[in-house]
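[job 4471] stage=fold_predict status=RUNNING
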Amino acid sequence: MIGKKIKTLRLKKGYSITRLAEKAHISKSYLSHLEKGLNNNPSLQMLEKIAVSLNTTIDELIEAESSNYISSAKPIITRDWLCLIEQAIKDGMTKEEFIEFQCYLKFKKKKNELTN
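[job 4471] inference complete, writing structure tokens
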């Protein structure tokens, strides 16, 4: 979960939620909701603000989630996947945002393949 990664990095820096929120120019409640998993759909702009404030990258913030993906020849849509999609829709994620995020992940994967 992105929230757990943000919290871990924040604590490593010795920042309080208030301090990180101020550095990132975001609300303390928004950051708190992210860390608690109450908001699992931050925009790339919000992730960028948080990443810069933690002297890291968006890649590092979402790395733990990306590494949990299992590649297979035939994708299986499980109940967990359906719940994730439903939650993203409830949180206001649009098809366009989903496509943008998917493109970002493809870009990241291709970039990693080129550097390895």
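[job 4471] summary: The chain has a mean pLDDT of 84.
[job 4471] exit 0
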